[in-house]
Amino acid sequence: MVEKARRAKVEESRPDADPAWEILARDEADDPPRYVGTVRAADAEAAHEEATRLFCWYAHEVWVCPAREIRKFSADAEEETELAVPESGTEGRTHEL
To answer: Which residue ranges does the record annotate as region Disordered (predicted)?
Structure first.
């Protein structure tokens, strides 16, 4: 039997002046998007420009996502942290490791 992962929401502060943007890209129109990195910029256009310069020179498409809108869940959370999925919940497994 596979043990269910115990993930909890992780709160991270981002004290820098410019917000962080997570960057995804795909090289061809039919490729799946892939995560390529993070940049800091004042707005989406500046984030796109920086991401293109650093990661996505030849990408067919580039997504810039505000990091503050992304929620992180981790199996490495502290024991006293509220779990994202209750222990009694049903979370199906797609594969066993």
So the answer is: 76-97
